[in-house]
Amino acid sequence: TTTLIGLLKTARLLRLVRVARKIDRYSEYGAAVLVLLMATFALIAHWLACIWYAIGNAERPFMKNKVGWLDALAEATQEYYYANNTGGGPSIKSRYVTALYFTFTSLTSVGFGNVAPNTDAEKIFTICVMLVGSLMYASIFGNVSAIIQRLYSGTARYHTQMLRVREFIRFHQIPNPLRQRLEEYFQHAWTYTNGIDMNSVLKGFPECLQADICLHLNRNLLNNCSAFEAASPGCLRALSLKFKTTHAPPGDTLVHKGDVLTYLYFIARGSIEILKDDVVMAILGKDDIFGENPCIHTTLGKSNSNVKALTYCDLHKIHRDDLLDVLDLFPEFYDSFVNSLEITYNMRDVSL
């Protein structure tokens, strides 16, 4: 009865179909899937070991010549069965470990041979185990190399892109100071974005979903800046589509003196210094704003200072034309924005 119940429990193996579906669904989580595959393999080996033991235990009382694998184990361990099948033999632990050892060696096609089938039933079952093992190699371990590659795909992409940057530097003979700035910018930008081009990703989504994503990415700026407090949800969505994020390593010059002021900058992280004739005019940090107010000045102005990053900086910027277009679409927000916008440092050169 116990053996029959044990065999009926093998129906639980049908649950592996659901496990396989989950493996396919969560295949992007490489490490977790790798562990799950190994656990699935061990579970199958466990159930097959139980069947292997059940076959040997069921056959033994009816055999005249004790040639089954359990008798071979008893001979090897010198823990013999009693006469007339009244008990004795190897311990339960020894039988289970040996059965599990046999199924693992059979499934992995190692087959050391120290545990081998002797009866017809054992040989038939061993053939089935070999077939299952070949299928498992195709369906489970065939994915292991792909999973491992996926685990290191981020590192591989980083080194590939860095190699392109260095080839560009070498081909165009970029001088050392500029070369260092290029590499530092690339490393900082990769740390922030993990090599994901947000614009190319967003292009694959409808505009309404793009607005929701951009609204989420720019939520801290839109919630913390007083200039956007009176903006309607539709206005915020339109603004979020226009914002761009830029990064700067320490020492990088964001704006040079005499540059046309086409963008309004909002500092999200880090600190910068404003330099005018090598004199520090101001040091700005998180939530500060620099540039010029495009609503006040109808013509493009030029920068009166240099802007240099003191630390690793992340900045949100919006083009003046894009900002004015949004304000034209939402005229009820125009006056509130103009009155609430507090530019920390106005960079417009009034002498021109």
Automatic annotation (TrEMBL):
Record domain Cyclic nucleotide-binding: where: 227-327
Keyword vocabulary terms for this entry: Ion channel, Ion transport, Membrane, Potassium, Potassium channel, Potassium transport, Transmembrane, Transmembrane helix, Transport, Voltage-gated channel
InterPro entries, A to Z: cNMP-bd_dom, cNMP-bd_dom_sf, Ion_trans_dom, K_chnl_volt-dep_EAG/ELK/ERG, KCNH_animal-type, RmlC-like_jellyroll
Location (main, coarse): membrane
Membrane topology: Multi-pass membrane protein
Pfam families given in the database record: cNMP_binding, Ion_trans
Location in the cell: Membrane
The protein's name in its UniProt record: AAEL001542-PA
The species this protein was found in: Aedes aegypti
Classification of source organism: Eukaryota, Metazoa, Ecdysozoa, Arthropoda, Hexapoda
